[in-house]
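Usage

Read records sequentially. Each one opens with the input sequence:
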Amino acid sequence: RRSAHYRRQKPFENSDRKIRGKILGFLAQHGRVEWEVLGKNLEAPEERIMYCLEALEKEGFLVCEDAGVRLAES
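and closes with the structure output:
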């Protein structure tokens, strides 16, 4: 039986979930990075990267600074 809250997830490829995961993984591996470095290493359109960055910042996962981005301290 499935939970009453069960939902079939969208495919992972080309999803915001995948971009968010790439952002968090990259920052976990490299620490604070400049905007250009992050953009060059993620294979996604800039507007989708920015959308995901804004959402992750609102959710408290990362901090966007003038010259770059880093993971938020827990």
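Summary fields computed downstream for this record:
- The first helix runs from residue 16 to 30.
- The chain has a mean pLDDT of 90.
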